[in-house]
Amino acid sequence: MPDVAYIVKNLENEIKFHNYKYWIENDPVISDEKYDYLMNELAEKDPNNPLLKFKGGVRLNLPKVKHEEPMLSLDKVYSVEHLLQWAKKVARNENEIFLLEPKYDGIAAKLDRQFSILSTSGDTGYEGENITSKTSLINFTISEKKSKNLRFIKGEIVFDKITFNEKKHKILRKNGKTYKIPRSAVVGLLSNDNIDATIGKVLTFVDYNWYSNEFDLNKLKYIDWDEYIQIMRAWHFPLDGLVLKLKDKDYFNSLGYTSHHYKGQMALKFGNPTGVTKLKDIELHSGKQSITPVGIIETVVIDGIDNSRASLHNWKYVIDNQINIGDTIEIERCGEIIPQFKRIIKKCETPKTINPICPDCGSQLIYDEPNLKCINQSCYGRLIRVLSDAVVRIGIEELGRGTVKKLVLEKYVKTLRDILNLTYDDVVALSGFATQSAMNLINEIRKVRDNPVHDYDILASFNISGIGTTLSKKILKHYTLEELMNLSVDDLQLLEQIGPERAILIESYLRESKDSVEQILSELTIKESKYTESKNSLKICFTGSNPLKRDEWIKIAEKNGFEYIKTVTKELNILVTDDINSNSNKNKKAQKYGCKIITYQQFTELLLDKKTK
After folding, report:
1. Is pLDDT of 378 > 50?
2. Run of H or E including 529
3. Which residue from 310, 336, 307 is spatially nearest to 321, judged by alpha carbons?
4. CA 72, CA 398: separation in Å to the nearest integer?
5. How far apart are CA 116 and CA 54, in angstroms?
6. What is this structure's pTM?
7. Which of 156, 234, 407, 481 lies 20 to 30 angstroms, CA to CA, from 273?
């Protein structure tokens, strides 16, 4: 049985993954309830874990705005019964007045009317991002009666359902597809600098004070909650719940707040649309780190969509909920993700025994809480997952998992070094590859071979359990990869966030894989953090056309102590362009952030001056 520290680490990794999918990629893969299940598991195992304080918020890479008063998240319940229990707990008497308001499904924001600044709440609640530049897309719905004398107006930026259905064909993801739900489109619009200028004011900032109903504690008990929720869900603004809060502002403030939420208010989350069906089978699918169970169900229609599969989350979830083939179950849809198991309606009297075997190699799987894992070192599925992750880490963007699978099965590729040494003839011989696609992939591989690769990306590509990019960066601030190869377990434990278990994992991997690691290092040009990742190095970006390829300019810049970044952010120091008067997005952003903008000729002169000093 794994120890508590190991379980906590797995929970942390899973929660961080879902935080990233929801807040950064805007593409959630589990429902809120399943996410809360993970958070509750973590709270039970490690009550003081920092992740429990995470508030959540979109990141748009825009200038920061500090909030004079924190914009915190909401504590939440999923039933009216629990909402009323909370109300009774905080009420001072039966006459305590509460405000019942919509819980908008958008992006929390704040309007500073004195300085005409609109900002997001941010992921801590204490610092958001300045989205004033996006106001050309936003209508403002403000309660002049309740907010008349307020400098700061808190609210939500939403995409009303009618406008969304009319305009969604004009708002595309990076992959060219449309957004399926309004909230995702809001994030897409706020984070995109290349919006169709004719789209107009399609978003709405809704003042939290704009709509509310007053009820005393006694009357709350007699609301027809089903009817009330049904009416609110039919609103043109997308909602995902209701908010109940104390009307008495002084009493509200006296209750204070946690690092996550105010204690004087509570959210009632709407349940997602559901359907009842039968679980016909459980399929196991290979993921990056584990084997994931997926339920095969009798087709059921939910919100006009046919559903024949449902996520069962992980193997611990299957065990905890005693899920068996043949059970009648309730499933729920959540936004754009596949349906999720919700609960068992009726147990099967003769359940089918599930024998968990690897879907790739057929080996018996082991239960490594909370997941199933294949420990067969020769499993081609495991090799495909490891190599797919490794090529992404070092920057071979054209090489997807499907192609890696072909390389493993058709060309018997076994290592990252094999991929780096692929030839055009190797690739064009793969099923489904034509001349141009084969050449594109070879050029992508050459680009990685010819340009410096960060040492922390290389270390992360080794796929040592628990050693991702963030931790690799911390390790390689102190040692080069070559030096790391010779460190003992005791040496490794002296590094930040490296305990005994991780130290043993790192040392044993580097010792046992020494030959293959050295081969990889010999194939790549390594950018070493220990010597080149100085906090004082100037960050530089290149744009526009020039006879010399951009990759060559990047090499020159990094050789001269600059740090190259792909996009214009507030951290950028110098933007090198072919036209300093251009109206390109990069030039506009650089001007907004106060970056120095120079031509390629001026950059060349700068390097010459540097060399002659």
Report:
1. yes
2. helix 529-532
3. 310
4. 40
5. 29
6. 0.51
7. 156
